[in-house]
Amino acid sequence: MTEIEGLILSAPSRRTVLAAVAAGTAAGLMRPALSFAAAAAPRASSYPAKAFIQHSQDATLQAMFGTSSVTASADVKMDAPDIAENGAVVPVSFDANAPKVTAAAILALDNPFVMACAYKIPEGTSPAIASRIKLGKTTKVVSVVQSGGKLMSASKQVKVTLGGCG
Amino acid sequence: MAHQILVHAMSSGGSTTVEALIKHPMDSGFVKDKAGKIIPAHYIEVIEFTHKGKIVLTGYWGPAVSKNPFIKFSFKGGKSGDPIGISWVDNKGETAATSSNIM
């Protein structure tokens, strides 16, 4: 893991990352990235890039949802393996029993960048999504669901025997 | 590079389940190649799923999504023969799109 951390610090984006973290924690003024209108084709400009370069759960949620206040809830169910032999492919799914779910995100707290993926969920789409993510080492994985503007979460510790930041 | 998207959509009991497998390296930018050079980050940023032109899911992915991403979700409605569209754009500006009918 020290190698991975070294790479982050020597990467050219270090300054941007630090600046973004500072701005996010100091001001808390980041615009919630999920407030754009629907488009026919994916637009790179809608990508919440700032949310993907944060190193803490609070900063990630602030950048993604405009708030870092989240409540652990039994209404969010998540499924992830207890032990992931191969960190490069870890199946993670969540299912929320909540009304008006508009967005969701999956975070891996000890990954180089906490945010793994996020989803914008329109009305009619069920708030249950399965996908596969990479885990660099043993970490807590958190599924966050935005329901009626509030954030609810479920989390699970996943033990990684072979890191897969690749 | 050929960008393949495999999609399988099935409707049952008033809702449609979509499974998609997208061919993409999803390079995180943290991995070195055999010569010790860092493989630059290359990953899908935005992926969109549509049903008859209406967006049913937007995904924002980062470098921590696995290579050749898989996703499964479902939405209300949809019937056999309806078109399901998938399109994505990655951090290098490459894009791909495909369309498939609900089985």
CATH architecture of chain B: Sandwich
Low-confidence stretches of chain A: 1-40
What is the fold named in CATH at topology level of the largest domain in chain A?
Answer: Immunoglobulin-like
Determine the N-to-C terminus distance of chain B: 29 Å
Distance between the termini of chain A: 13 Å
Overall pLDDT confidence of chain B: 93
CATH 4th-level superfamily of the largest domain in chain A: SoxY domain
Provide the succession of SSEs of chain B: EEEEEEE
InterPro entries (chain B): Ig-like_fold (IPR013783), Ig_E-set (IPR014756), SoxZ (IPR030995), SoxZ_dom (IPR014880)
Protein name (chain B): Sulfur compound chelating protein SoxZ
Domain Sulphur oxidation protein SoxZ (chain B): 9-99
Organism (chain B): Acidiphilium rubrum
Task: Summarize the model shown.
The complex is a heterodimer of chains A (166) and B (103). Chain A is of the alpha+beta class and 166 residues long.
